[in-house]
Amino acid sequence: MLGPVILAASRSDRMRRLISAAPVTKQVVDRFIPGETVDDIVPIIKELTARGLELTMDVVGEDITRPDQAEAARDAYLGLVDRLKDLELGPKVEMSVKLSMFGQALDGGHELALANVRPVVEAATAIGTTVTLDAEDHTTLDSMFAIHEELRKDFPQTGCVIQAYLFRTEADARRLAANGSRVRLVKGAYKEPAEVAHQQKHEIDKAYVRILRTLMEGDGYPMIGSHDPRLISIAQELARRAGRKLDEYEFQMLYGIRGEEHLRLAAEGHRMRVYTAYGTDWYGYFMRRLAEKPANLRFFLRSMVSKG
Predict the structure, then answer these.
(1) pTM of the model
(2) What are the angstrom distances between the C-alpha of 5 and each of 20, 98, 263?
(3) Catalytic residue list
(4) What is the pLDDT of residue 249?
């Protein structure tokens, strides 16, 4: 399987330098990350929302080694909130954050990440939108869930992400569904050991369906993070069986992947949210997109051959 190899490369400084220096890389990266600054991304926000889509914005960058970098990440999100306020789009554009960007891995990282993310969640709430805490590797999740629980005391719409390939996730989903959380379910995009995660695609898919059924039958708000046509159809059927209206769950897909499907689902009346990343520190995000889906890797390699 190429996925684990690509994920290993995502942590390699040598591979980062090699891929970043490739002439074709920028053109290909632009497919997934359409800008480096807030000013770059505003036209994308306007275009997608005008076409009936919603967004969740991610300021990419995870290699935080100092507290001042974590504060800079906080300030980048606060700057994004200011621009979203100017656009007056309210709940059509939310934000996704990785707590590693807010200092989670530093000394005292749990408290530091909570202190840095809280003003972002507070500012988002003030303009009528929400924040979702992205899941990272399994060693970070207890902290993420604890921060999620703490934030929901004051900001109950704060969402979180769970990953179907982890063994723990079925129990996490039952807890989150029972307490009415907003939950994005994804397959998972980190290299995890066999002791904690399913390794085979068919096992991950089966777990995804079991977990999604739990979310649909619970009291929360499910967010289906998948590009898989079969899982999208299953999600629609599970929603129907659970008696959910079209505004009681949503689909989420990545910018640059299956754009026509985004529009098709929105045209059918579904809430369709596009996960849109921007920023200069794109390497880790880009490599995980390649690892998630073989077609993304083929696209990249074809481009390198044709443009190189």
Answers:
(1) 0.86
(2) 18, 23, 33
(3) 134, 184
(4) 98
